[in-house]
Each structure stands twice: as C-alpha cells, then as structure tokens.
Amino acid sequence: MSGQLNKQKVLVIGGSKYLGLAIAKQASEAGAEVVIGARNPEQASQAAAQLPLASAIRVDITDEGTIAAAASQLGHVDHVVITASAHHNVRVQDLEHDKIVTAFEAKVIGPLLLAKHFAPIISPAGSILLFSGVAAWKPSPEYTVMGVTNGAVAFLVSQLAKELAPIRVNAISPGITDSGTWNVLGKQNKRELLESASVSSLVGRAGTADDIADAAIWLLGAGFVSGETIHVEGGTRHT
Ligand SMILES: NC(=O)c1ccc[n+]([C@@H]2O[C@H](COP(=O)([O-])OP(=O)(O)OC[C@H]3O[C@@H](n4cnc5c(N)ncnc54)[C@H](OP(=O)(O)O)[C@@H]3O)[C@@H](O)[C@H]2O)c1
After folding, report:
1. pLDDT tens, position by position, 185-233
2. Which atom of ligand 1 is nearest to the CA of 174?
C-alpha cells in the first residue's frame, strides 16, 4: 500500500477510534495527509498526534453547521471516509423515535449533507466512502434500525455516485468486526457475538479492523469503481 495515496488529503469522519482510526493509520502509511474528523475535538487531536502529517477537525455528522465549517476550513480534499454511526439496537417494541432519527442522521442524512458541502471541494478523481453493514442483508431481532439504515446507505451511494460524478461514491459493508465498538457488550456477550459471527461466516471467523481498512484503502484508489457497496464480511450473506 506504500505510496498509493501519496500527497492526497483524506478526511476520516469517525477517525478518532475503531475502524475509522484503523483506516486513518493505513491511509497515512499509504502516504496520505490525513485529517481526523470527530465530534470530540480532543479525541480527534489525540488520534492525529499518532500519525505523521495528520491534523484534526471538529465534525459532528448530525450537525450541518460543523460539516459546512469543516468544508470551508479545509478548502480541498481528495477523499472523505465516514464511519459514523449511532446504534439503537433494541427490539421493535422498545424503539424510541429520537434514537431512530439519530441513527438515520448519522448514516444517511449526515452523509447527504456532507455531499452537499464537500462535493465542490473534492478533487474530480477523488471519492466519498460510506459505511453500510451486514445487518442490512441478514435481518435479526434487535438490529432492525441498524439493518434499515445500512440498507439505505447502499441506495445512497448509487444515487450520489450518479449525481456527483466523476467523484466516486462507494460503501463498504463489513460483517461483525472486532473493532472495539462491541466492547460495550461486556466480555462474555462480546465473545458470544464474535463466536456466532465466526459460525455464520464462510471463512470461520469475525472480521478484524485491518480486513476493513485494507478494503477501504483499495477502494479509495480504485478509479474504475463507483456507486458500489463492497461486502467485506467473509461471505456471511451466503450462509
Ligand atoms: N464493527 C462492526 O462489527 C461493524 C459491522 C457492520 C458495520 N459496521 C459499520 O462500520 C462503521 C464503523 O464501525 P466501528 O466498528 O468503527 O464502530 P462504531 O461504533 O460504529 O464507530 C462509530 C464512529 O463514529 C463516530 N461518531 C459517532 N457519532 C458521530 C457523529 N455524530 N459525528 C461524528 N462522528 C461520530 C464515533 O466516535 P465518537 O462516538 O467518539 O464521536 C466512532 O468513531 C459504522 O458505520 C458501523 O455501522 C461496523
């Protein structure tokens, strides 16, 4: 990957932790000038301090004002990666209106508004990379909001790719990946989730952050791929 993103500016929103940070690290190793975007400026700066040539910027994907301000401050970028999500993993009977709306803001409305403000400053050979997820293709109780928002992302990339061309717009749909986000479940529940993900994949394991970051770096440089959702989930949809 060394040099693949030489001299390219890559904004990673959600870059202060988990998959976003893994992608930011690999982008940096590939020669990019990385900008870590996060709603918590301190966390963004701490992540940026780990990488050569990196800087930090405040972006809350649910707040259009911060998106517009970031576009105006940066002036030009080659690629924008958005890993932001807001989980509302409960059974249908326990759904809460505001949490459903926030989940859509993080995955669908925010990226739409990001396209509005960033398309004019993204290089014509550049791209936007969104995150969908396997829950869209494998319905499961408690993951309905995640499934529906991830499914919307797959339609969003084809719509945006058409309108923003030649800027490429793609998504990665990860399978269950041990990025750090599942630590909230506690050790035992997390182990069970990863074991069940291994059983339901064709390759006998859950994903690693590097599995997803490898695919992300490839997609940023894949000049003949646009409007696609790339499934990086060990074939889980086929089991
Ligand atoms: N890990 C998996 O198993 C898996 C599976 C399928 C799909 N995915 C998708 O892959 C993407 C990345 O997942 P992940 O594993 O890294 O965990 P995640 O918990 O989904 O990470 C979300 C990231 O977005 C940031 N974020 C949340 N709300 C934000 C906001 N309003 N504005 C800006 N940033 C915000 C979080 O940072 P702060 O909260 O600190 O702001 C964090 O960096 C997500 O879209 C997720 O749905 C992951």
Report:
1. 999 999 999 999 999 999 999 999 999 999 999 999 999 999 999 999 9
2. 6
If phi > 0 it is left, if psi is from -120 to 50 it is alpha, else beta; for residue 227 that is left
- Count of domains forming the chain: 1
**Cα dist. 51→24, 41, 119, 171, 173 in Å?**
8, 16, 26, 25, 26
Print the domain residue range for 135: 9-231
Concatenating the DSSP letter of every residue in 142-207 gives: T-HHHHHHHHHHHHHHHHHHHHHTTSEEEEEEE-SB-SSGGGGG-HHHHHHHHHHHHHTSTTSS-B
Residue 120 within a domain: yes
179, 183, 190, 198: which to mutate for ligand 1, most atoms within 8 A of CB? 179
> Is the CB of 38 inside a 6 Å radius of any atom of ligand 1?
yes
Ligand 1 pocket member 14 (CB < 6 A): yes
The one-letter code for the residue type at 160 is L
Cα-to-centroid distance, 14 and ligand 1 (Å): 6
Taking only the tens place, the pLDDT of each residue in 135-144 is 999 999 999 9
Domain harbouring 154, CATH code: 3.40.50.720
Question: Is position 3 within any domain?
Answer: no
In a domain? residue 135: yes
The CB of 60 under 6 Å from ligand 1? The reply is: yes
CA distance linking residue 129 with residue 212, whole number of Å: 12
